[in-house]
Amino acid sequence: QVQLVESGGGLVQAGGSLRLPCAASGRIFSINVMCWYRQAPGKQRELVAVITAGGSTNYADSLKGRFTISRDNAKKTVYLQMNNLKPEDTAVYYCNADRVAVADVGTVADCWGRGTQVTVSS
Fold it and tell me: Which of 28, 35, 50, 102 could bond 96 through an S-S bridge, CB–CB 3.0 to 4.6 Å?
């Protein structure tokens, strides 16, 4: 019904930047909320940033000022711009879409991508 595919991860040195896109596909009319989460080894998955269809954003307090979430509704894509990366940002980054309007299905909740690995070396 809904597929989310993250990309853009990789190995970067501390202080560097990465931009992660996540593209949604399927017979999608609209997506209400899109988020980025991350999960570091041995830790629970944590919310990184949220963006609504109208463009309102919210961030984890510890990441404000370094990370920026944005979206292109026409492309059904959400982005995470990560600047001044630190080794503690190393994690698998997951895309999430909630309240997705899908043709012939209705509203689908809580869709996840498979994640993209981000590794920051010191």
Answer: 35
Distance (Å, rounded) from C-alpha 54 to C-alpha 37?
A: 20
What average pLDDT does the segment 18-26 reach? 97
Bridge-partner residues for 77, per DSSP? 23, 72
- Residue carrying structure tokens 């689908």: 108
User: For the chain, first and last CA: distance in Å?
Assistant: 40
pLDDT digits (tens, 9 = 90+) for 62-119: 998 999 999 999 999 999 999 999 999 999 999 999 999 999 999 999 999 999 999 9
Q: Which of helix, strand or coil describes residue 68?
A: strand
- Residue 46 pairs in a beta bridge with 38
- What SS3 state is found at 46? strand
